[in-house]
Structure formats: structure tokens, C-alpha cells
Design a protein that fits this description.
The protein is of the alpha/beta class. The protein is 47% helix and 20% strand. The protein starts with a strand and ends with a strand.
Length: 196
Amino acid sequence: MDLGLLYSAGKDSSLAALLLDPFYTVTLVTATFGITDDWNHARRTAEAAGFDFRTLDLDPAVAEAAVDRMIADGSPRNAIQEVHTHALEELAGEGFSAVADGTRRDDRVPTVPRAQAQSLEDRHGVDYVAPLSGFGRGAVDQLVDARLDVESGPSESVPRADYEAELRALLAEREGRAAVSAVFPDHEQSHVTDFR
């Protein structure tokens, strides 16, 4: 079966690819609004690991609405959730037998509630697979240490190939760099540089 995995080249989506690979023909798919070309980081990582790769164009109006939401909320949480939902919906319409993401059991955002997963499956005729849904951060980190080479650091300093990076860029363009610091909490990001 062919599976499209939403792919950022971070630890979670890369580990998800490894876990799914024995069972599916996995294509790593980076969703993009076309705001930046940061998805090239994901393409290079995917190709080096031997996975097929492609991008998925998302509706730029969704990015604009997400930035409006972040500004109104003072937080990226609800906006990221809405964008992730949009990305899964778009991916489900791309002709794959199954779609997946790298959401973990202890993720605060994004999440895919059971009802949303079932609705996605029913409406698009696909299977939704969440291979990390039973794993917490500690277990993920142990598995990652065994199989992936990772570059980590503050969000602004690590190459990112996800829609959060594009939302940051759009927010900075519209409201200035200070708005990005005000809306997004400081946290460490990862970028996988190689699979072992």
C-alpha cells in the first residue's frame, strides 16, 4: 500500500517514516504555502534516506487566516492545529491508500482526535495512521538516538521544513520580528540530517 506521510524532516516525522517503511511504500510529503523554500531541507533528507519525496501546495488563504488567529490569540496553538487539519485533508485527497503524520501521544498541538481521524478516513476513503500515537517524548528520543542523526537548537536557528516556519515568516512579514517572539514560545527544534 502507498502512504503519504506529512514530513518536516524533524525527529518525529522521520521516526514515523522508519516505523512505517516495512509495511507501506512511503512517500514523504512536505506541505507548503509557498512562502519560503525551506522544504528543500526535507527533500534533501528524504532523498539521502532513500524515500520518495514531494511537496503539497496548501491554500495561502489558510496561512493568512492562521496568522490572523495567532495575532488574535497571542499564541500559535489554535492556528497550528487548523493548518495541520488542512494539510491532512489536502494529503488525503492526493490518491494515497493511507496518510500519516508524526503526532505523538503527548503532543499538545497538533493532535488528531479519534472522531477527526474517522471522518477523514470515511470522507476520503483512506486509512489514517499515527505510528507515534503510543509513544511519549522519552521513548521517541531513545529510538531517534538509535537511528537518526539530528541537529537541534532554538527554533530560529535550525532549518525547518514545516508550515510553522512559513507561518513565522508570514507573521514577521506582516507584523515584524517582535511579533514572532511575542507569539511563539522559545523551544528547541530538530532537523534530521541522516538516517542510520
